[in-house]
């Protein structure tokens, strides 16, 4: 599946080139994969009563998908994206000049953040995930780790426990994101920090558009491929409501080149990122898939025959309040007016003369 690099560095072990830029909109559920994990699991009895705007995802199915992906012969084959984002979160941890005695990784998977951390930064890490197979097959890390099987929607820890909480590409599958943020804030110690990453709304827009156009052409309509998740403009508000302060929210894009549509969907399945929405379409017809592959290549194909897949990432940083933290000055306490700044500019110009 290797693609030719286009003037950018490739993800470790993937052989697939990266391009990245900016942009932001809303989060959406990734399209279903081709093989057993996505196709075999139909909604259980009673699913309709639990589905809806307040609970769009089947968490039990998501656990099955992630467990299946972790048990593959080469589970690390499709981890290139998670490892890249995990490294970028670790970089943000390194930017904070302190040592964290106890940290928590929410939705850790196989430990994509832990492998990039050092003992000088994090002394001990608790890894939490709903998929026990992912925790059992965790990658090596130089820091001591403890694995806990638990749902990210209900953290089993006491208040004021952790100095640092991190989360990479997991919270976009949580049904109640405001509650998840509140629980993360609750388990943090005062002056603790949360650093997280989620998929953004422009993720896989090429695949989404190709599937919709193919379904319209072949079946006379298309199934919903977009889930009602938060926009990047709302993340700051949600974090603030959860109690976080000194917030930072930014976006990034990673573009990976693939041989075709089927390889994109195969790797999504290998990542454990198949669709788990209650209103998902269990199967796509063969003719629709072939049409979508042709549309994908025609609309977005590269000159070398590969096709790009764009992954938009939302990064967020929030702190739990502590008296020692810097506070904004009181209104009206400034000693220099904006009018004085214009005079200062004139003074600098005269000095240069």
TrEMBL record:
Main location: mitochondrion
Record-level GO BP terms: methylation; mitochondrial respiratory chain complex I assembly
Residues annotated as transmembrane: none
Signal peptide: none
Gene3D superfamilies xrefs: Vaccinia Virus protein VP39
Localization: Mitochondrion
InterPro entries: Malonyl-ACP_OMT (IPR050602), Methyltransf_11 (IPR013216), SAM-dependent_MTases_sf (IPR029063)
Keywords, ordered alphabetically: Methyltransferase, Mitochondrion, Oxidoreductase, Transferase, Transit peptide
Single annotated GO MF: S-adenosylmethionine-dependent methyltransferase activity
GO cellular component: a single term: matrix side of mitochondrial inner membrane
All copies of domain Methyltransferase type, residue ranges: 104-195
Similarity comment: family membership: Belongs to the methyltransferase superfamily.
Name of the protein this chain belongs to: Arginine-hydroxylase NDUFAF5, mitochondrial
Phylogenetic lineage: Eukaryota, Metazoa, Chordata, Craniata, Vertebrata
